[in-house]
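Problem: given the chain below (315 residues), write out its structure.
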Amino acid sequence: MCRCNYCRFGPAESSSCFRNRVAKARGSSRNSGRCYGLSCAQATVRTTPTRSAKRKRIRDIDDILLRSRTGAVADMRLNRPACGNALSLELIDRLQEAKDELATDDGVHVIVFAAEGPVFSAGHDLKEITNERTGPDGGRAFFERAMEACSDMMQALFRCPKPVIASVLGVATAAGFATPGVNIGLSCSTPMVALTRNVGRKPATEMLLTGETIHAERARTLGLVNRIVEPGQLAAATVELAEQIASKSPATLKIGKEAFHRQLEMPLSEAYAYTASVMVENLLERESREGIGAFIAKRAPVWHPFPEAAGTNTK
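Solution.
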């Protein structure tokens, strides 16, 4: 466990309700001394909810993945605090299942990813990995399945049409505030894919070769998190960020998210040609007509429902 000034943990929060955590964060000072980070893993979006704003629990409290809804915002929370929310194969499969479901749910416009307890995630479940070594193949089949499932899950976050916010409390290892595999004889090879796409080569190499945990300020400097907030204010800050971006057109944010990730992999001239074509198509969408028209008329725009707005040129 990290012992820097940003990672001296107090008691874990007991509530899994996103809005309840906001109320506690705004009215309580008991959480002083923790490390809080906020990262836009993707962008975030919500329009005026088309369903009741009342929070809807989808999973039982004893489940390894807690899920809730507040209007158009879906909350997914890792719920294995006793083992630092280690990513077992079952948890990875459940995350993928939940992501696939939310990606096609027209009522969900935002996904918030968080965790129960003082550790966001300790990375792969090392006890599970050790137990699988007793098999006749030394665990190869399980290792292959687990690494493939984890890689698929990470890629799915980028491909998901719904923007995602990671609301990080405390230590996040593997592709987070530490890549400690080198300390136990295991290179963080798959985590380096996300790491090297978010920070520079030199700091990424240092993290991978030393396995040291970095504190919140350093993580923000390197670009691993967007913001850090005062102790006890993580939930409120997450809601504020989500609602700020949620006021935008969901269809437009979907277009922007896809274009952002695609152009990063292209040479400069190809990226400009691609994004120019994206802007042309976006200008032909009814959302841009509504937004520009509202700006000129000095009124608030009225965005269309997410599934109908994307990919249509209805006048």
